[in-house]
Amino acid sequence: MANDTKERILAAALELFSRNGYAGTNIRELSASLGLVKSGVYKHFESKEAIWNALLDQMIAYYGEHFGSAEHLPPVPDSLEELTQMTMRMVNFTVHDERIIMTRKVLTLEQFRDVRARELATKHFLTGLTEMFTHVFTGMMDKGLLRKDDPKMLAFAYTAPISALIHLCDREPEKTEDAIRKIEAFSRHFIATYGVK
Q1: What pLDDT, on the 0 to 100 scale, is given for residue 2?
Q2: Residue 105 in contact with residue 170, Cβ under 8 Å?
Q3: d(CA 139, CA 142)
Q4: CA-to-CA distance for 47 and 181, rounded, in angstroms?
Q5: How many other C-beta atoms lie within 10 A of the C-beta of residue 39?
Q6: CA-closest candidate to residue 179, choices 65, 76, 53, 91
Q7: How far apart are CA 91 and CA 35, in angstroms?
Q8: What is residue 137's three-state secondary structure?
Q9: Which residues of the chain, if any, have pLDDT below 50?
Q10: Among 64, 71, 65, 36, which Cα is nearest to 51's?
Q11: Which of 10, 44, 99, 192 is the most exposed place for a label (fewest CB within 10 A)?
Q12: What pLDDT is attached to residue 138?
């Protein structure tokens, strides 16, 4: 039961922080959204900062498990088509999973206030994607699927526009389907440019 309440607190905190930011959310509002009194929240977390840190830990674990990370690298595709399929699975997950959407919003809002949020934003929006796709492209070059090039630079060139379009989905959700089509077209253009037939 205690763990359920803890999870409920973190879920509500993610929703409120993604909407109002850390500074714009107080414990009274958080506890009221759960039908608790403030002491009910403090029974599980000693402070708002403790909730924040537990939430960041949870975000890291959820993202790594469902999307991938340096510790959970995706398999290297066996064909060029599999690269597009893998990319689109990742994109569809990241633009439709509510927890991931709220996580991106929280990191975007809080990256200027909190050092840990800044580091996570950099990792999830830039360096982590580059690392994952450096691994993927190195493997695809080894399999003879992509022409030999600097895999890190190719990974950066591949992920930066995709990441930009994902952020567009957050800012303008009505453009999500168009952004997804553009990402798929970009993936196929990339393959046409760097793939080995």
Answers
A1: 58
A2: yes
A3: 5
A4: 43
A5: 9
A6: 91
A7: 35
A8: helix
A9: none
A10: 36
A11: 192
A12: 97
| Residues forming beta bridges with residue 195, ordered by sequence position | 146
What pLDDT digit, counting tens, does each position of 77-126 carry? 999 999 999 999 999 999 999 988 888 888 888 899 889 889 988 888 88
What residue has token string 């959204």? 33
| Spatial contact of 141 and 133, defined as CB atoms under 8 Å apart | no
- Is 70 in a helix, a strand, or coil? coil
In 3D space, the residue among 84, 86, 157, 80 whose CA is nearest the CA of residue 126 turns out to be 157
pTM score, whole prediction = 0.82
Q: What's the angle, vertex CA 168, arms to CA 137 and CA 77, rounded to 5?
A: 20
Check if the beta carbon of residue 147 is closer than 8 Å to that of residue 87.
no
Smallest CA-to-CA distance from 14 within 102, 110, 123, 137 is with 102
Could you give all domains of the chain from N- to C-terminal order, each with its CATH number? 1-60 (1.10.10.60), 67-197 (1.10.357.10)
Residue type, 172: E
